[in-house]
């Protein structure tokens, strides 16, 4: 599954809201904001994990080991995407780790991040209002059965 | 049934242990098994690893391999899996039924009977590695990469217990120093404060990479370890000075592994810049300890060792004092070890529990049966994988019981490629 240019641009926009949902061993979801989330290239998403002991970190490891998908939601204005992806690798050394950490340290010089997660998208869902609306409108007899009557 | 390592099959044993412990992440068990059985790299993998981008292990301290490395190929030290689990590169001869390191689509993979198990990544060479000290020593012989974000110093590659034939039965220190020199790879037995100062300065210039360093080396019991302590303090001061000059900090995240000392001596270590102390007892059972570590028994004694280790917490604080073990030697050939897995595991868990209760963290590096050691000469082989699974899970349960307030974060999963207990801490 490739990451489109539009999605890449949305991830790069500092005003976008970016959420990551992981699950624990009992399948309980856990959602957090991930400001550092970015598209590395067409194939991978990446973000910095700040803490070794965070619930997300434990869940990500669990999801990696037991091959469970995680979800990323990103939106700004009418644009929104949801990505289902598999945790692929936790990078603890090397050029990529260095460049992500550098960005973190610009904003938070006191931080000691634990590493950089790579996520491989398996499914990208366009959740934009316009797209969803069109999908909905394409349903048979949308205008008959899906309209709230008397909407203000 | 008696366990015979050389007759056990890698894949079969690994699969059985994975099935028995479905909640143990497979990467933890694979790491343990890689340390136990070692690696046999293919020619293409070894050729790729010669790329100067990669760190190549300077082979100071211990050899770790299960057979003498006599090839010209350089080998790396630590590497990691996709989940960040770090493992040491240990070469093994065929009787160990080692895992294979090969290239698949130009990426490094660990294989077992041709089946790709885990993609692995080797670390980039630290920027200081190829530089020289003013005295002409390659800096990589002064400070070695021990993990992605840590390096360590070996202050002396000679231990006085070896001079008396009282070395610990699993240790290859003096043998390794001689072997590396014979192979033309050795350089220095002892390092000086100037060399350590210059090397630390250069290392710290690679900003944002490091977060842990430690100092270790052979013991010198003369004058109640005062000579060794004085040398160590001069080295610690040199490291601290480098930290101050390059990073503007008063203390670095520095640990030292040493013989247990008197309170006043520990205070001097702390004042010089040590924040974490390691007193390595190696094995918990008292009688087996006396047999396994005759030098330690002669110079300190079992009860004193423990007493002084516990006392050090007053100076360094809870969780900053660690007591090291060599997991695996509990099952060395009798009378040095036990033959029963549970007896061996329980012996160590009793010790871990006692230490944790007292604010001391059990740590250590898994046993590697290395050439030149007494155990190797006895024909010893590694214990069953099941032993390690039980021991690491047991220790994890104890860590949970004693709460995370005393975790030894100095020895975390990125800092210890030679043992599995650190990886379990990630689950706490
Ligand atoms: S004290 Fe024992 S383990 Fe340490 S260097 Fe000396 S012989 Fe080796």
In short:
The complex is a heterodimer of chains A (152) and B (428). Chain A is of the alpha+beta class.
Describe this structure in words.
The complex is a heterodimer of chains A (about 150) and B (about 425). Chain A contains 5 helices and 7 strands; from the N terminus they run αββββαββαβαα. In chain A, about 30% of the residues lie in helices and about 35% in strands. Chain A has one domain (about 5-150): Pnp Oxidase, Chain A (Roll). Chain A has helices at about 5-10, 55-65, 95-105, 130-140, 140-145; strands at about 15-25, 30-35, 40, 45-50, 70-75, 80-90, 115-125. In chain A, strands 2-1-5-6-7-4-3 form a 7-stranded antiparallel β-sheet. With about 150 residues, chain A is an alpha+beta fold. By secondary structure, chain B is an alpha/beta fold. Chain B folds into 2 domains: about 10-120, no CATH class; about 150-425, TIM Barrel (Alpha-Beta Barrel). In chain B, strands 7-8-9-10-11-12-13 form a 7-stranded mixed β-sheet. In chain B, strand 7 and strand 8 form a beta hairpin. Chain B starts with 9 loop residues before the first helix and ends with a helix. The mean pLDDT of chain B is about 95. Chains A and B meet through helix 2, strand 6 and helix 3 of A and loops of B. Iron/sulfur cluster binds near residues 219 and 295 of chain B.
Any chance you could write out the topology, listing elements then pairs?
The complex is a heterodimer of chains A (152) and B (428).
Chain A: H1 5-12, E1 17-23, E2 29-33, E3 38-39, E4 45-49, H2 55-65, E5 70-76, E6 79-91, H3 95-107, E7 115-126, H4 129-138, H5 142-145
Antiparallel strand pairs in A: 1-2, 1-5, 3-4, 4-7, 5-6, 6-7
Chain B: H1 10-20, H2 26-37, E1 39-41, H3 43-49, E2 78-81, E3 86-88, E4 99-104, E5 107-112, E6 115-122, E7 143-147, E8 150-154, H4 160-163, H5 173-182, H6 193-204, E9 212-216, H7 226-247, E10 254-257, H8 263-272, E11 276-282, H9 286-292, H10 294-299, H11 302-311, H12 313-316, E12 321-325, H13 341-357, E13 361-364, H14 374-377, H15 385-401, H16 421-424
Parallel strand pairs in B: 1-4, 8-9, 9-10, 10-11, 11-12, 12-13
Antiparallel strand pairs in B: 2-3, 2-6, 4-5, 5-6, 7-8
Bound molecules: iron/sulfur cluster (SF4).
């Amino acid at each position: 599954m490739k990451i489109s240019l539009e999605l890449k641009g949305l991830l790069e926009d500092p005003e976008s809201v970016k959420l990551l949902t992981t699950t624990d061993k009992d399948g309980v979801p856990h959602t957090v904001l991930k400001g550092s989330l970015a598209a590395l290239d067409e194939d991978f998403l990446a973000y910095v994990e700040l803490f070794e002991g965070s619930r997300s970190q434990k869940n990500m490891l669990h999801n990696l080991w037991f091959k469970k998908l995680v979800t990323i939601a990103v939106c700004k204005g009418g644009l929104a995407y949801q990505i289902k992806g598999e945790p692929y690798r936790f990078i603890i050394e090397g050029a990529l780790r260095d460049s992500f950490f550098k960005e973190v340290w610009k904003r938070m010089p006191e931080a000691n991040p634990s590493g950089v997660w790579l996520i491989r998208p398996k499914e990208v869902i366009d959740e934009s209002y316009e797209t969803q609306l069109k999908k909905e409108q394409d349903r048979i007899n949308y205008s008959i059965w899906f309209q709230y009557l008397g909407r203000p | 049934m008696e366990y015979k390592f050389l007759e056990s099959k890698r894949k079969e044993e690994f699969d059985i242990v994975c099935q028995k412990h479905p909640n143990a992440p497979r990467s933890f068990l694979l790491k343990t098994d890689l340390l136990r059985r070692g690696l046999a790299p293919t020619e293409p993998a070894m050729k790729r690893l010669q790329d100067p981008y990669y760190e190549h292990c300077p082979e100071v301290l211990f050899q770790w391999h299960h057979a003498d490395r006599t090839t010209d190929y350089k080998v790396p030290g630590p590497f990691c899996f996709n989940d960040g689990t770090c493992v040491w590169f240990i070469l093994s001869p065929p009787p160990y039924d080692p895992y294979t390191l090969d290239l698949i689509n130009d990426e490094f993979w660990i294989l077992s009977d041709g089946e790709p198990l885990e993609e692995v990544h080797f670390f980039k060479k630290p920027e200081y590695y190829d530089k020289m000290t003013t005295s002409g020593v390659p800096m990589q012989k002064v400070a070695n990469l021990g993990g992605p974000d840590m390096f360590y110093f070996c202050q002396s590659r000679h231990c006085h217990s070896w001079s008396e034939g009282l070395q610990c039965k699993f240790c290859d220190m003096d043998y390794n120093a001689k072997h590396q020199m014979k192979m033309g790879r050795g350089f220095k037995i002892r390092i000086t404060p100037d060399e350590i100062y210059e090397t630390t300065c250069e290392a710290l210039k690679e900003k944002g990479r490091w977060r842990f360093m430690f100092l270790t080396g052979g013991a010198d019991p003369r004058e109640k370890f005062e000579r060794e302590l004085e040398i160590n303090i001069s080295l610690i001061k040199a490291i601290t000075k480098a930290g101050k000059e390059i990073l503007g900090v008063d203390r670095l995240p520095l640990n030292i592994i040493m013989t247990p000392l008197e309170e006043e001596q520990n205070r001097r270590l702390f004042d010089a810049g040590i924040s974490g102390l390691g007193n390595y007892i190696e094995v918990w059972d008292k009688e087996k300890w006396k047999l396994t570590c005759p030098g330690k028994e002669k110079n300190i004694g079992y009860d004193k060792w423990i007493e002084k280790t516990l006392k050090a917490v007053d100076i360094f604080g809870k969780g900053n004092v660690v007591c090291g073990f060599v997991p695996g030697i509990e099952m060395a050939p009798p009378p040095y070890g036990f033959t029963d897995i549970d007896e061996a595991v329980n012996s160590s868990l009793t010790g871990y529990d006692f230490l944790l209760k007292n604010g001391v963290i059990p740590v250590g590096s898994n046993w590697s049966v290395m050439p030149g050691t007494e155990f190797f000469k006895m024909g010893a082989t590694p214990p069953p994988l099941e032993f390690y699974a039980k021991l690491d899970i047991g220790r994890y349960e104890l860590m949970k019981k004693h709460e995370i307030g005393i975790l030894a974060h100095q020895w975390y999963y990125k800092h210890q490629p030679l043992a599995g207990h650190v990886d379990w801490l990630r689950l706490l």
